[in-house]
Amino acid sequence: MSALTLLDYASVLIFALTGALVASRQQLDIVGFAFVACLTAVGGGTLRDVLLDRNPVFWLGNPDYILIACAAALLVFFTAHLVESRYRLLLWLDSFALAVAVPAGVSAAMTMGQSGVIVVLMGMVTGCMGGLMRDVVCNEVPLVLKQGELYVTAAFAGALAAVSVAMFTGDPLIVLAVCAATTWALRAGSLAFGWRLPAYRARPPRS
Amino acid sequence: MSALTLLDYASVLIFALTGALVASRQQLDIVGFAFVACLTAVGGGTLRDVLLDRNPVFWLGNPDYILIACAAALLVFFTAHLVESRYRLLLWLDSFALAVAVPAGVSAAMTMGQSGVIVVLMGMVTGCMGGLMRDVVCNEVPLVLKQGELYVTAAFAGALAAVSVAMFTGDPLIVLAVCAATTWALRAGSLAFGWRLPAYRARPPRS
Amino acid sequence: MSALTLLDYASVLIFALTGALVASRQQLDIVGFAFVACLTAVGGGTLRDVLLDRNPVFWLGNPDYILIACAAALLVFFTAHLVESRYRLLLWLDSFALAVAVPAGVSAAMTMGQSGVIVVLMGMVTGCMGGLMRDVVCNEVPLVLKQGELYVTAAFAGALAAVSVAMFTGDPLIVLAVCAATTWALRAGSLAFGWRLPAYRARPPRS
């Protein structure tokens, strides 16, 4: 099994869990859980594949992805009430999903021999768009755009790190590991320690 | 005219009527009516065609679809005030659109020889995504995700019924009729009699 | 540089500025600015290219578009506080972006020899969809659907004017200039003088 396939599986599984958790906040039924889980799980990768004209779209060529997402939805439907703070769990699961999906996007674009800018963008699209679709459809404030948190920034830094490291080594495992570690470190640091970039202020204090 | 073409026409027409009804709730002008009607009418089928890489997208190959959607928008613009309860009408029209669009998606995927999982998914995408786009763009609570109603479930059951029946008969008309009937029966039963699946509850009563 | 390339560049630049302005209303950080700017800048054209199956999508073939959008985001991040009324600026910039993006869509479809209906639709998709994505993602009321303003109507009229003029002249510069001028005149007239079409009223006065 190639690194890309493995990353796709992992990101589908974890994103599906986050989708099902959002569905639990909306008190949907079991099919609604599966629907949101699948949308979140394959949304970013689907957009990546449509943009890169990869054919077929990854989950059309292998329906296992959908079955995994449905299994994740089922699991959350029957166990989410055991969790103390579902929103906290959602945030942390989402950080892992991001840290797996960004290298998945990077890997897909690199395999096709795309330029550095495109590789970075595909990493960001794959990492951020599934969660964005989940939040837009379920009418939550998109995590992607939450003020004062690193999210798109973490995806950007991870993808950039991958492109930088790829200049020095041809080993995809090292490249993807650096990508995942950078992405997750920044996102987790933002969640745990409040790391952030300065946000825009309409009236900044004069320096 | 093939069954698929006929189903596409019917689903475009009925979804366009629902789109125009939502536009009337937003008090848009006539071009706004046509815009929302077209988005709703072709949204699901377009996503299906892009995912399956069908070329060209169905309404690009035959602009009649767009003209039908615009005619539907015009009709609603001038007659919607005659209707007692527009929201009730919207719900019921939407149920017919769903029951026509799901077999349209199923039929397109079957014609391409896709596997059972993909056929079911394409039925759900074609049936649910146009209405979802309509509701997201117009800032309505998506019908797809409304609590305590069968919607995605109806689409899922209809598509599953089609795949099951297709194992026993090669006649597409029977397959598509079973699909449409199952979908509509579940959706209509949910609207008329409150049929539902148990929804997720954060603190379920102990059994 | 072809007229289409030039139009794409200009619409990317101006739409990116509007995206960054919306990001400033959401008080995002610098990467958030770039994200919303890129989404707005390439959203409409990307949808156009995916629908028309143009390959590769315009910004994948030439990453300069993304760099331009990021530069625009940077500019707005550091200068937006100098502007008296950011929303007013946003509306007017958006009108210019619309007037450039509609001919960009029209031009792409005409180059491919599409029929008149498709050309008009691609003009509308390219012009309206980027701004719509921006507003949906950032949870603003979509400009596209704002009551009592010409927006989709302006795009429609501009694209229709282009198709009409193209029957009499083969010079793409004239066609695209008429398209841009018509679009902008209607949109600007709506902003400045309140031009509008009659909107739907649930209970219209009897005539």
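Residues 86-111 of chain C form the longest helix (26 residues).
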